[in-house]
Design brief:
Helix 3 crosses helix 4 and helix 4 crosses helix 5. By secondary structure, this protein is mostly helical. It has 6 helices and no strands.
Length: 111
Amino acid sequence: MSYRLVRKVPLRENRRKYSNGTPNMSTTPQATRVGTASAKPMSLVSPSLRERVREATRQVESEIILEVLEQNRWNRRRTAQALRISYRLLMYKMKSCNLRDENVGQRAATR
């Protein structure tokens, strides 16, 4: 087996420069950090697409989990089987969606 040496070449993004010779700040990690001086205050920044998608996913998941829990009379083992996920994953999702509180169980019992 023969091994050949590979010459390391900097990435194209790292080699970009503006016409005046300063590095392109859009590709440097400092420009994307929240704590930098160029970042806007968090109160003025709208949620990113990623955050919006995560929140929408959490909301849909919680509705689905709540519906299946009610169908199975809050039997979590049967609910996990019906959703085809592990019991542990159901517990994590219930915790992240705040479905493990007693008030959610009481709301379902009064319906």
